[in-house]
């Protein structure tokens, strides 16, 4: 069965997004600093249609973001700032006409909406039946490849509490936000049932890899 993987960046004080998220500040105020390590890499820039970028450890970790991934899951807040019914001119995502996913993306929402087909192979499917239904559909669409949980923090916590996450890639940026949305709020300081499989660091970020243990706890 395809694994469900989480890929996310957080601050030194545990925030994956800053306060007061909006269309003008999609990650919350000040939180764009979290992703400076990735944006500087050659792999991230190529994925977003940009040239140049740095190579090295951070680039290697950024390149793993979509490797072996057949489908994605994200929360509605990750998809966009709109709340309530979608309206007559519904939001089409932060990423323009050619989002960087190039695969089916399953968006958790309370409001039904027809699939949104974009350029480059990305189709957003809007799931109203909950996290397990989204995972079942994503695994089917992934056709044997892994499913990547693309965020945000609240959605990650739902899957973590339900025991559905198989692996986590947590990138810790050397910044302090002081407020916002914590990744591990109400799930304990360290998630039980996972072991650390890799830890690498550069001046820009520390990269933690965690995988589900066979009845063990984080070591």
Explain what you see.
- With 219 residues, the chain is α/β, with parallel strands linked by helices.
- The protein contains 6 helices and 11 strands.
- It has a 9-stranded mixed β-sheet, with helices on both faces. A two-stranded antiparallel ribbon has the order 2-9.
- The protein is globular and about 45 Å long.
- It starts with a strand and ends in a 7-residue tail after the last strand.
- The mean pLDDT is 91.
What are the low-pLDDT stretches, counting only 5+ consecutive residues below 50?
Answer: none
Going across the major beta sheet, what is the strand order?
5-6-4-3-7-1-8-11-10
Helix content: 10-25%
Count the beta strands: 11
**Which overall shape is indicated by the principal axes computed on the Cα atoms?**
globular
Main beta sheet strand tally, sense and closure: 9 strands, mixed
Instruction: Give the terminus-to-terminus CA distance.
Output: 26 Å
SSE topology string: EEHHHEHEEEHEHEEEE
The fraction of residues assigned to DSSP E strands is 25-35%
Structural class: alpha/beta
Mean pLDDT figure: 91
Rg to the nearest angstrom?
Answer: 17 Å
Q: Can you count the helices?
A: 6
């Amino acid at each position: 069965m395809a694994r469900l993987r989480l890929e996310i960046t957080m601050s030194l004080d545990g925030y994956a997004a800053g306060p007061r998220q909006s269309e003008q500040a999609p990650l919350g105020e000040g939180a764009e600093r979290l992703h400076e390590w990735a944006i500087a890499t050659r792999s991230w820039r190529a994925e977003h249609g940009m040239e140049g970028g740095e190579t090295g450890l951070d680039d290697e970790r950024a390149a793993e973001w979509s490797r072996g991934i057949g489908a994605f899951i994200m929360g509605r807040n990750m998809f966009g700032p709109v709340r309530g019914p979608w309206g007559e001119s519904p939001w089409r995502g932060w990423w323009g006409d050619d989002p960087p996913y190039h695969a089916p993306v399953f968006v958790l929402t309370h409001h039904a909406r027809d699939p949104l087909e974009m350029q480059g192979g990305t189709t957003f499917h809007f799931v109203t039946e909950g996290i397990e239904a989204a995972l079942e559909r994503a695994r089917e669409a992934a056709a044997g490849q892994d499913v990547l949980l693309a965020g945000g923090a609240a959605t990650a916590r739902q899957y973590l509490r339900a025991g559905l996450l198989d692996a986590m890639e947590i990138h810790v940026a050397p910044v302090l936000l002081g407020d916002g949305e914590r990744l591990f709020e109400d799930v304990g300081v360290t998630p039980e049932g996972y072991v650390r499989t890799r830890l690498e660091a550069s001046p820009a970020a520390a990269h933690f890899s965690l995988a589900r243990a066979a009845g063990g706890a984080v070591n």
